[in-house]
Every structure is written in C-alpha cells, then in structure tokens.
Design goal:
Blueprint: H1 11-14, H2 24-34, H3 42-52, H4 55-69
Length: 70
Amino acid sequence: EKAGRLITADPDVLCAPLHSVKFFNVVMLGIATATGATGLPEEIVRQSVETRVPERFRAVNAQAFQIGAD
C-alpha cells in the first residue's frame, strides 16, 4: 500500500491577488510542480502554461503559477 502526501490549499486565500478563484487550477499546477508531484521540470510546465493560454490571460496565469510554486 502506497501512502501519499496530502497538500491542502485555500482557493480564496491563494487566489485573492488574482481577484478570481477561476485561476485556482493553475495555482494547483504550480504547487504540484514545485513539490515534484508532476515529475516535470518547473520551467517546462511554466513555459507550457504561458504558451497554451490566450495572450490576454498569460500574465494572470503566470502569476497564478508563481503563487502555487512559492
């Protein structure tokens, strides 16, 4: 039996600087990447977020990812 690690995060608190909890998925991606849960290098995931979202949302998604990574 494999025991994992549980990480809790409050969307209202973490997304307050973003003014919307709609970006919580990207915050969680930042958390998962920073903790090694994705198994992917942070820079690769960051670049993917920045290139796969519409330009008008890139800055806020980059900020959301950084909030999670911190």
